[in-house]
Amino acid sequence: MGRTRKPLALLSRAGRQGNDPGDGAGGFTLLELLIVLLLASGLALVCFNALLADGQLVGRMAEGWRQRQERERALDLIRHDLTQGDDVLLDPDLAQHRCSMNKRQPVLVIATKAGPITYAIGSPPSNIWASRVLLRCGPAFTKAGVWSQKSFLNRVLIDGLQPPETPWQQCPVAGGAEVGHSFALPLSVCMEPATGLVTVRLSQGQEDSTASAVVGLHNLMAADALENKASN
Predict the structure, then answer these.
(1) Is residue 67 part of a domain?
(2) pTM across the whole model
(3) What are the residues whose beta carbons fall under 8 Å from the beta carbon of 194, sequence distance 6 or more?
(4) Is 13 part of a structural domain of the chain?
(5) How many helices (H) and strands (E) does the chain have?
(6) 85 or 17: whose pLDDT is higher?
(7) Contact 176, 199 (CB under 8 A)
């Protein structure tokens, strides 16, 4: 059988269909590509800023947690010294300090049998510390965790101290007295003379931590132990 030949008119019409600009076979124009690129860049910038903000927030939270841990450790040491001490001087400027108080302001002085323990606010002794610092001048600790009777040390406990945003207007405990005009200082101290309860606040600007302890608590516990032993 011979092949059927299509008319030339049909062939020419079919060949022209691929060149018809209205058949939708064309790609994106340059303007469309630029618009898509701008939108993608804007979206990427928004995502980057969101990630950057999240990173900064996480960094601030980590820094706040670190500072809080440092404040708690310093307050734990102050609480220990208070309970093991004998008394707190309401006017720390009158105390005989075992360390130099040059450019330092004594705030809390705890009288002990080994000598006075002084907590002071001052400028950082070196560039590794930031802002104002809290220093402790007192007996060193032995490996057993008790005071050494041989050596006194002057050490920085915490840096980055700033006055509280809202200073105490009065003692947080009834019948308490301000110690050493300290309410406007980064280390604020209040004492109730009748009970020996001492409340201490350590401030780093917007953040602060508070602790309380009874000065001379070890004497009270020893007296109770002797009384119980005598009664038995």
Answers:
(1) yes
(2) 0.72
(3) 175
(4) no
(5) 3, 9
(6) 85
(7) yes
d(CA 187, CA 47): 43
Considering the domain boundaries, does residue 218 fall inside one? yes
Contact call for residues 215 and 85 (beta carbons, < 8 A): yes
Q: Which residues pair with 107 in a beta bridge?
A: none
Query: What is the domain extent for residue 167?
Result: 62-231
For residue range 100-117, list pLDDT tens digits in order. Answer: 888 899 999 999 988 899
Residues contacting residue 95 through CB under 8 Å, at least 6 positions apart: 89, 106, 109, 116, 118
Q: How far apart are alpha carbons 104 and 155 in whole angstroms?
A: 13
Q: How many domains does the chain have?
A: 1
CA 180/CA 106 separation, integer angstroms: 8
**Which helix (H) or strand (E) element contains residue 75?**
helix 30-84
The label of the residue with tokens 């030949």 reads 5
d(CA 49, CA 47): 5
End-to-end CA, the chain: 133
Residue-wise pLDDT for 8-67, tens only, equals 444 444 444 445 545 545 678 888 888 888 888 888 888 888 887 777 677 667 777 788
